[in-house]
Each structure stands twice: as structure tokens, then as C-alpha cells.
Write a structure and sequence with these properties.
alpha/beta; four-stranded parallel beta sheet; 52% helix
């Protein structure tokens, strides 16, 4: 398959999806997660999809980890809700007019995140640094099991640590290391 056929196929797929499920008042959100999909939704491909789908595209979530891409999409598409996949980058995106973030670790630190959202842009740096430190503590662990360990500690309820296959729980040593890194 030629490289050009991939974006054409992606645009065609979204066009068909919109025709089948979108209607007045319901929007679709594009999800850029090339590590899982194999196809990056950069700002040029996003422009093609938005153009092909009219007003049916309401937003974009970037879980690629590519700051330049999420910034380019936020700047180029001011009428879309643009989200990133980590709260460690939320002040950058908010400064560019982005809508926010959708992140598993946000459930571990809502009280730390709130000041970043509420602060004036110049006052965000200190609050963002605290949020980023907590998010960074998860980087050495399998994300979902680690978030569940943190929630179990925060809520005093071991039930939070239940996982579905194929996920595996953290070992006792890794669990202790995470709890220590988070200061729980």
C-alpha cells in the first residue's frame, strides 16, 4: 500500500462514520494515538478529515506524546476541543487555547490539578510543576495497575487494585516503590 493511500483511507473511514452515526448536536472526537493505531493524525490529516466531515468533528485528543503536534492542532483548529493525554502538559495546551486533558492519573490528583486550571496563565507554572512531579512518578510503572494501587492507597480500599486480563498487578516491591514515590 502506498503511503498516500493510508491518509485517504482514514479520511474515507471518517466520512463513512459520520454518515452513519453523526447527527445534529452530536460530534465525533478524533483520537490521535499512533502507538496503537499505526496512523498519526497530524494537523494536515486532521484538516482533511474536518473538511470531509463538515461540522461533525467536535474535538481531538492527542495521546501521541508529541507536544509539537498537539500545539499545532490547538493553534490551527480553535473551534475544536483539543485535549492531551497527560496532565503533565496541560498548562502548555491551555496557553495555546486547548480544552484540557483526559488522563488516567488525573483521578489520583484532582486537588493538585484544580489550581492549574483556576490559575491565571502566569501563575500556572508552580502548580503545573506539582502536577508534573506526580505524573512523572508513574512513568516507571505499568500505568493502569499503578493508578489502581494509588487509588487503593488514597481511598483505603484494596478493591481498587482488581485488574482484568491481560493486565497484571504490581509486585509488592514495585507497589512499595510507587507508594513511596507518590508520598502516600
Amino acid at each position: 500500500m502506498r503511503q498516500r493511500e493510508i491518509p485517504d483511507g482514514v479520511v474515507d473511514w471518517y466520512r463513512r462514520l459520520v454518515r452513519e452515526v453523526a447527527h445534529e448536536g452530536r460530534w465525533l472526537y478524533l483520537y490521535n494515538f499512533p502507538q496503537m493505531s499505526g496512523v498519526p493524525l497530524g494537523d494536515d490529516l486532521t484538516a482533511r478529515i474536518v473538511e470531509a466531515c463538515g461540522g461533525a468533528i467536535g474535538g481531538y485528543k492527542d495521546s501521541s506524546g508529541d507536544r509539537a503536534n498537539s500545539g499545532a492542532v490547538a493553534r490551527r483548529f480553535g473551534d475544536l476541543d483539543v485535549f492531551v493525554g497527560t496532565e503533565a502538559r496541560m498548562s502548555d495546551l491551555l496557553a495555546l487555547g486547548g480544552a484540557g486533558w483526559i488522563s488516567a492519573t488525573a483521578s489520583v490528583q484532582p486537588r493538585t490539578i484544580a489550581p492549574v486550571v483556576a490559575a491565571a496563565p502566569r501563575a500556572r507554572a508552580a502548580a503545573q510543576a506539582r502536577v508534573s512531579r506526580t505524573r512523572d512518578a508513574f512513568s516507571d510503572f505499568s500505568l493502569v495497575p499503578a493508578v489502581k494501587v494509588a487509588l487503593a492507597e488514597i481511598h483505603g480500599d484494596a478493591g481498587w487494585t482488581r485488574l482484568c486480563a491481560p493486565l497484571r498487578p504490581l509486585t509488592d516491591a514495585r507497589r512499595r516503590a510507587l507508594v513511596s514515590a507518590l508520598g502516600l
